[in-house]
Design goal:
257 residues, globular, 13 helices, 0% strand
């Protein structure tokens, strides 16, 4: 039964990712994708492509992530579940945000928010609000960024989504740092780091460690910044996220000179 086999391979790949066996998960997902494509199992193919997109995003291979997510979007018909489309557009926005193509990221996020609103998926909408708030932070629209992050925080509190609360603390810490409220920023970022560690999320841990490093660079404390960047590098090495490791190594080189 190809459908059952492809579904089982998909389930196993999820477990492998949780265990940190990323390359085995990718190999299994690509085998499942070939099987699903051969038998035109579009519903499973959509899930496989989404998972591959997420894994390559985690690894820092953003173009590969975008490729899988765009394929997923093409598989969806006009009348397919708006919540799924909202999630795919959200993830496409994440990839563009990581590539610093902020205009494209905002376009994807806004489309996702519109679909989440129509489908009354408030959790998905709040996740996208949080990501959009980081774009606004980059554009120095700190008031609008804070408003969106605060709205997301309130929703995550209602849903009991502690991991997303931790991610909100990270963004609020970044905003506070840009406002030069360094003590508040550090408190937010340390709370984010603690929650990510509690949930055993090395990607979130590494990203927050990078932001703590940036906070100490802003304050002129190079030694602490280097410590956090080395910690972030270790987090990304554990994920086999070589592109992210290279980014951190570049920042370390600039500080050590």
């Amino acid at each position: 039964n190809p459908q059952h086999l492809a579904g089982t391979m998909l389930s196993i790949s999820v477990v492998l990712v949780e265990k940190g066996e990323i390359e085995r998960a990718v190999k299994l997902l690509q085998e499942a994708k070939a099987l699903a494509a051969e038998y035109e199992l579009n519903k499973i193919l959509i899930k496989i492509n989404m998972n591959l997109g997420n894994i390559f995003h985690m690894k820092g291979s953003y173009d590969d992530s975008l490729s899988y997510l765009m394929q997923t979007l093409e598989l969806l018909g006009e009348n397919d579940d708006r919540s799924i489309k909202a999630r795919i557009l959200h993830n496409i926005g994440l990839a563009y945000k990581a590539k610093h193509e902020d205009a494209k990221a905002l376009e994807s996020f806004n489309q996702s928010i519109e679909l989440s609103t129509i489908s009354e998926n408030n959790h998905m909408k709040s996740l996208t609000y949080l990501e959009k708030s980081e774009i606004l932070y980059r554009e120095d629209d700190l008031s609008a960024g804070t408003a969106l992050a605060t709205s997301a925080f309130q929703a995550f509190s209602q849903f009991g989504d502690r991991l997303s609360i931790g991610e909100t603390y990270k963004v609020l810490g970044m905003i506070s740092g840009k406002r030069k409220n360094y003590r508040t920023a550090q408190a937010f970022l340390e709370n984010s780091l603690r929650i990510s560690r509690d949930h055993n999320k090395p990607l979130n841990v590494g990203q927050t460690q990078v932001e703590l490093a940036h906070l100490f660079i802003e304050q002129g404390d190079t030694d602490k910044a280097i410590d956090f960047l080395n910690d972030a590098k270790a987090s990304f090495v554990d994920l086999h996220a070589l592109a992210r490791v290279s980014e951190v190594e570049g920042e370390l080189s600039a500080l050590v000179k």
